[in-house]
Design goal:
The complex is a heterodimer of chains A (85) and B (286). Chain A is mainly α and 85 residues long. Chain A has four helices and no strands. In chain A, helix 1 crosses helix 2. Chain B has a domain of 164 residues. In chain B, a hairpin with a 2-residue loop joins strand 7 and strand 8. The longest helix of chain B has 16 residues. Classes of the chains: A mainly alpha (85), B alpha/beta (286). At the A-B interface, helix 1 and helix 2 of A face strand 5 and helix 6 of B.
Amino acid sequence: MTNDDGDETFHKLVTVIAQTFRPDASTAIGPATTSTDILGWNSLSHTILIMNVEEAFGIELPFDEIAGLANVGDLAALVRRVRAT
Amino acid sequence: MTRSIVVYGNCQTEAVMSVLKQVPGLQSVPIAYYSSFERSSGVEVIEPTESTIASCLLLLGHPDDPQRPFPRHLLPADCSQVRFSPLDFNVFWPWTTVNPHDRRDAQHPWGSFPYGDRVIVDCVEKGMAPADILAYYLHDAWNDYAPKLDRLLEIERRRLLARDALCDVKTAELILTNFTRQRLFWTRNHPAKLLLGETIGRILTVAARDFPVFAELDVPAFVAAHSIEPFAALQVPIHPKVAEHFGLEWCLPDAQYAWDGRHFTYEEYFAEMIWHSFASTPSKHV
């Protein structure tokens, strides 16, 4: 995953994640960030994150790919791909 | 060597353990609890030692939580394992979020209102006055935020079924086929007695395949006699539009919800949460 600085999708996604989980200011969210890096991001709250992402971008993400995302970079890539189709 | 039973998982598995201790024939068997999450300060739990885990004959628990997986490498080769899912469900609370305006104290190690509401958090951060927030919440927020409830249910359905596939005890269909007719959850991660009891019965039934002490039980009668209601003290109200959309037969408009020793209507609960948001300083969330 390359650095996404300057990528509108990535920055918007980071905002949604931050609004969903309210991490400490010391928690930086980058492409390699995983759920275990952010307090409160677990399999249960992942559903709410996906709903918030879909609302923010006006898209629906494929069910089969929602659960298997390894990190924030993967989620950003999925959002980009769905927006492009 | 005395063989032990270990239960692993979130607070729900503590309830499983307490029922397990009532099983005739297990009174002399050490039963230990290994938490899948970091405990709050002030809540003391004696966890199993490595030697207890090494003597474990039966591990009953959730699939590993990435935050605190079970040290399965310490289990003996002959240890049986029965996996069951945590009982949780987002569908009734589409606006759930972390509550950044909550606070923790000795009496409330998880906070006074740890189940935050996205609409209220947004309104507080926009600088709206408490009375205006409540009025907006009760009258206009639903149309502005318009949660896609059918989409939420479908995502949840698939999440529950996928997790069931990792478990020996299945509960997804139990939830999905009954949630409109019976109250199964008090909060999104706290099941009601009915669901918890049925799940414990299924755990005992699966465990009975390898252990005669469970096979000798009349499981329905045992569960009926020993089921507990450990989570009813905290009940998050359900938006009337959610109840209407899903046709929740048990969710009445004038329902009272228990919360921290008090009882609130839907409106009173959110009024209290809004005022609490203004009275609190930010703290670490759940």
